[in-house]
Design brief:
The structure holds 2 protein chains of 2 kinds. By secondary structure, chain A is α+β, with helices and mostly antiparallel strands. Chain A contains 8 helices and 18 strands. In chain A, the strands form 4 sheets. A 6-stranded mixed beta sheet of chain A has the order 6-7-8-3-9-10, with helices on both faces. The longest helix of chain A has 18 residues. The two termini of chain A are 26 Å apart. Chain B has 2 domains: 263 residues, MetI-like (MetI-like fold, Orthogonal Bundle); 262 residues, MetI-like (MetI-like fold), CATH 1.10.3720.10. In chain B, helix 3 runs antiparallel to helix 9. Chain B is globular. Classes of the chains: A alpha+beta, B mainly alpha. Chains A and B meet through strand 6 and helix 2 of A and helix 8 and helix 9 of B.
Chain lengths: 351, 560
Amino acid sequence: MQGDFQEYPQGKLNHPRPSNTLATLEGISFRYDPKEDLVLEDFSLSIEAGEIFCLLGESGCGKTTCLQLLGGFLFPEKGKILIEGKDYSSFPPEKRPVSTVFQSYALFPHMTVLENVCYGLKWKGFHKKEQRDRAEKYLDMMKLWSFRDRMVTELSGGQQQRVALARSLAVEPKLLLMDEPLSNLDAGLRKDIREELADVQRKIGLSMLFVTHDQEEAMELGHRIGIMEKGKILQIGSGEELYLHPKNDYIRRFFGEYFVLFLEGKKHFLRPEDFGISSEKARVEPLSGRQEGRRELRKEGRVLFEVFLATYRLYRVSLAGEEVHIKLQANAPFREGEEVWVFFYEKEEEQ
Amino acid sequence: MKSFFSLKSIEENAGKRVEHSTLFSAVFFSLSIIFLTFPIFLFIVYPIFLLFWKAFQVENPGQLFQEISLRYKTAFFHSMESSFYSALISTGLAFFLSYGIRSTGKWQKRIALLLLSMSMVSPPFISSLSFITLYGRRGLITYRLLGLSFDPYHKWGVILMQSIHFACMNTLFFTNALEDFDGKLYDSGRDLGANAFFVLKDILLPLLSPAILASFFLSFLRGLSDFGTPIIIGGRYSTLATEIYLQIIGFSDFSKAAAMNILLLFPAFFSFLLYRMSMKKADDRNKEQKGKTGLRLDSKHWMNLPIQFLLFFFLLFQALQYASIFLYGFLRFNKKQIFFTWENMGSLFQYNLSTMGLSLLLAFTASVLGSFFAFLLTYFMERKMKRGKKLLDFALSLPYLLPGTCFGLAYILAFNKAPLKLTGTVWIMLFSLLFRQMPLGSRLAGTALSQSPKNLELAARDLGAKPSMVFFQIILPGILPSFFSSVYLQFSQGLTTAGAIIFLISAKYKVLVYTLFDAINRGDYAVASLISGIMILLSLAFSLLLGRVKSLVSRRGVGK
């Protein structure tokens, strides 16, 4: 349960803590047209070696622009792009030690799987034989070895995605740039490839900048997440930090539903899993766990609606005209129309 | 007692109504198909059939063909040779020009596109004429400015002129193809380490090869049917299309002209077929790509420099050509000096200028009616017809396969006797314009329709729209931009085209192109320049007017 992780506020234990900086965007200003406003203004960001950094934001917030600046497809008006300390700001894409996995893969439709993967190796100065061996190694890693002689257009979306990944990995870039690489896949496949990606990253310790608008994807993959709005990074932290301690309402809303309750002259920001419900017949603790030593606050309410959703039960409860959504464990016994007490544990610092 | 209200009776009645409405719509559908295909049969298939019939109506057709193929062997070879070279050069040139346009700034791009689209509206032969005035034996640039004596009247003069002329249209075509190209493929090539040259070679060229082939075969087809350029600049180098033209003009030998046409038809038919195949492949390839981003070419690579130079000189060449068309009418040449003069304006008015009114009227009527008919027919063909689609499509593209002069000739043969006596009337001119341009409108309609979702139509029917109203209320508003392009292109073609209409004019009804020919024949190049200038300005004025109508219509919404 989520509550169990509370004692480790620093984030996920299974991820290595990064230490040294690999790539930096330093004071970048950029606009697409001299007549238009700046898309990025005095923007800075650094990516550590061996980490997956997720840029999370709504479409149009400038996250893809960031990626394209790093890839060399756009050039900044002001500022520097450093990779391992070297200034690459004015280098074309073919001379940068990075590789991009594009949103709809951008596989060359007139080439086979193997030819696609070899294409990048050709420019690294490998001989034909070496190209082939290396390409096959990465195709094998992505479980695509048996498809190597197919045309890429014959593959399914998920397979194409993995070819694109193999193609980028094969050139062994210092930094892998991923532009919403999973957004064209259906939910099940997205999850599979997410896991595969995390495995591969752990295996070869590659650094990645991952751009997405999906907070779940960011939380699952990102060692650190930077949340962006209108060309600015609002907050950087692990998924857990951003979820539990968002700096402002925008970030709070981005990470899911929340409710604001005024109780005893104070404002309380609460997620659906922060509520518990009690009645005469039962008491069910919040999904986020029982907080020993914290003050419990409560309010009278009536259950408007309840539904079983496999791993939890969702309630809509009216609290004196205000409606809140509450997630409880799946076997919670409260039914529609019941008069109940809704309770939660007061948090230490509220904004 | 019979119940007042029974479910059964409702069901029965409903059944009847459905039956009645399907029967009605089947009749309506068949009638519309007949109504739409009959004109195609009458004004395209029948005249062309008659033209070929004529070729076999001589005493010994076998001998005629043998004679012709022997006598015009050289002309046939010249046709193939010049068409091949001009298709090759114009396609190659156009590709690099469009690459250059894609990687320049916004305003350079605008100027380039404007100059290129002028070639679409400039009257035939006039670019050859202005080429001669600028670069000929006594050319303004070669002779007066540089003191060179340069003789363009040979094979390479024809190929050069055709290449430049076709390159304009091909460049516009490639500019669109590059617009549709998924920029991510280019980016990912560079991302993997290839520089601009290798991305061009390994990714851009192979992926655009269907479009390149389509452009080649279309240019080849146009080269085969071009009779004007060899006449003006060919000197002794004569092609089959030119010989056919001379045969009709000089000897009025229709049987022979028809037989010569059959000779030309074979290569024309094959290049047309190959063009259609490549075009289909190009469209399919475009559909494969999803989530496209714009193509951003690397403008810093060295390769860009020669390409920009090429683009600059090509545009300069075009600009000089149009400037000379406009200016030549206002200049007088003495031995060493050039004066500005209104004299030519004066002599312009000695020509029959009433032709302008008729030309405008014909071009306008043919463009609006023709586009409307082509769009309606193509809609029926693509969405409603189950059988005969291919046949109708072929019939529709027939006018493309013949040189314009043959199309005119076929009309004379078909409509010179009662009950279909149209020769000497204004109608024959209108119909020839209308149906000669039909392939153009139909192709634009086909492309637009393939981009309009089929569900839209189903949704309209589902919400209760009658089938007859779906086209007007749902389909047409969606493809209106293409409709307007079709009207514009047909108008400017109708205004400037010579081939089909030149044999159809009568003492009573003459068109502006005829006046232009008159001036050229009299050697009055200054007046010819003025008339060409007027034609170009009329086309441009029409395009402005159409733009205005378009914005008015789109603001109000159509079909409400």
